[in-house]
Amino acid sequence: MRVFIAGMDGYLGWSLAQYLAARGHQVAGADLFLRRQWVEEMGSCSATPIVPMKERLAALKESRGLEAKFWEADLRDYSVVERIFKEFHPDAVVHLGECPSAPYSMVDVHHATFVQVNNVVSTFNLMFAIRDLQPEAHLLKLGTMGEYGTPNVDIPEGFFEIEYRGRRDRMPFPRQPGSFYHLSKVHGSNNIMFACKVWKLRATDVMQGVVFGTRIDEMGSDERLLTRLDFDESFGTAINRFCCQAVIGHPLTPFGRGHQKRGFLPLRDSMQCLTLALENPAQPGEYRVFNQFEEVYDLTELAEKVRRVAEQLGLKVEIHNLENPRKEMEEHYYKPDHQNLRDLGYKPTHDVEAEMKIMLADLMKYRDRIEGKREVLIPKIRWDGTSHKVEYLSGQAVGA
Amino acid sequence: MRVFIAGMDGYLGWSLAQYLAARGHQVAGADLFLRRQWVEEMGSCSATPIVPMKERLAALKESRGLEAKFWEADLRDYSVVERIFKEFHPDAVVHLGECPSAPYSMVDVHHATFVQVNNVVSTFNLMFAIRDLQPEAHLLKLGTMGEYGTPNVDIPEGFFEIEYRGRRDRMPFPRQPGSFYHLSKVHGSNNIMFACKVWKLRATDVMQGVVFGTRIDEMGSDERLLTRLDFDESFGTAINRFCCQAVIGHPLTPFGRGHQKRGFLPLRDSMQCLTLALENPAQPGEYRVFNQFEEVYDLTELAEKVRRVAEQLGLKVEIHNLENPRKEMEEHYYKPDHQNLRDLGYKPTHDVEAEMKIMLADLMKYRDRIEGKREVLIPKIRWDGTSHKVEYLSGQAVGA
Questions:
Q1: Is the pTM value of this prediction over 0.95?
Q2: Structural domain includes residue A264
Q3: How far is the alpha carbon of B379 from chain A, nearest alpha carbon, in Å?
Q4: Shortest Cα distance from A128 to chain B (angstroms)?
Q5: In chain A, what residues touch B160 (CB-CB under 8 Å)?
């Protein structure tokens, strides 16, 4: 299958390129390397050393004998997307080319606008290029479980059947996202759902949980094949940040009371799931939603797990809760379905603790890189529009 | 009250400026005159003659002794919005500055992108300017009943209480909009709903039905005070288009089987409703949704009404259904609530037929203007992305 990956230089994008190439698919991708710039803007860097795309591709060839085509390209420009589609003729298009950060979208009006325009426009361009140039191509769009928010009822996979005032209908499940970034994903989902209806586009919209992990097996021991791993407040996600904190002896810092629940998934299983979706595409006109995560934990449970695993590796770890810079529920019901991918054959490979162990071992090699950017571990960007370092909560240290 | 109107040169904007000024409010507005360009792009013009804003303001002064402040300004530029807010200090901000056309948004990728970016970014700029400069100001955002689509259950005003798998929650009612324009309104609604939650913004989101009519009493007999009235496929709405067709002896052209139901409201009652919302603002943190329409009809009933009223005025009218260029349900359930505005004191003044009579009399004066653009009455823009004139349906003529 010919798979085009938008955002091939990113955390998921570079992993997926290798995963798919190893399975014999023809892979091509594009990236404008904005993620590298955004993380720099946050005063941070990837915990894992990452080489330029040219070296990544050379390493892929040397170490694995695999090839991938690449364009440094701005996918917000439709003529660019057209040119790529006319050259590559993708059977599937994976959209990982969005700005994926909630805090980044909350900085100010310019960041909010940038994130939504970037994400909506790149999605539009891919949708229209499929319609006009590759109408049979399957669009695999990365969304987030955060599109749903934390309602007081079970979360189905995209749609639910309801009775209201004595009548019944199957409707999209209401989305209650918690940042302008999450909203941009909802906008994209809504645009795609509509395109499936009117153009018979085939699409899979992946509501992904929080992904963590430093590697997939396909990266082997060639350091040039490592994917990025961020730990700043904007581009680092919960487990990844906790693990980076653990290896440098920084307290683990759940926000607020730390009872926010989320679904989690190791990077390798994210690759498995995305590939299952690609190898079993949606039908023409079908808009399919997959909730993609395995285990649900609250942030305190996660911090405890990181501590337990880190201690097995000889690290000394404290947990110290921080004031919550976000506006979110800290105690809530959370029960999302996640059956669709299992029905396609998805089998979890590593549980959270097993993956954390691999991850911590990897990260210990890069302690100095993280230590050098230690100050980015405490957030500043607040949901109320102000920006100043959040404080530790007194009397909230858990097992410190 | 100091009211800022984004989009003051438009159909609703210019009417509202006069309506509010006549009630003693201090009115200011901005416009980039894009609507005039878009209608030209459609090969059309306003059925009513419209003078430049400078002359409009002069007429307002001469005929009514009223003033309004105006900026020719691009509200997609945050620094422009900032400058206006620092000068005018609005107590209320009415956002009528979006591109309001479903067909226009369906032309191609460039139009779809333009409409969504224009609408999302201008809304963001107004939201952020309120937060940062006028935090007590009330945002009145014009949405559309089209945000809901046509579900098989009653449509509440924004939110509904549901039971799902034995648990209860109050949630946003799912939106199923029918074009990229309608989607842009949903994106805006979602962004505002979130801002109310995290910033305590106060907002009223008006899900407006299809507005029709040539005038409000405040325009009197000064032709320079007339608002625009469009009849092309993109910017003309159902009743307005039917009335324009009637006065030049063109068949009235419901799309498809013509049983699509919509809610309708005369221009003067739209002004009454918007003003009620402004004079009874939402509370800090409140995101309030008003379904704003009065009567529900299907397109065939409407065409019949236009014919009946037109015949009273001595016009000979045929109804001839057209192939439907849109993808929409042509037979469906439709029962939206509309109680919130009544609770604020809204009282319908003119029923559909009474208003049509006033309108047809007005439009008969401008027959030549409409006749000169006769070809724009048959649509070309199709929801499947192609563009060619739609055909009359054979055997579908209703009472022709």
A1: yes
A2: yes
A3: 18
A4: 6
A5: 164
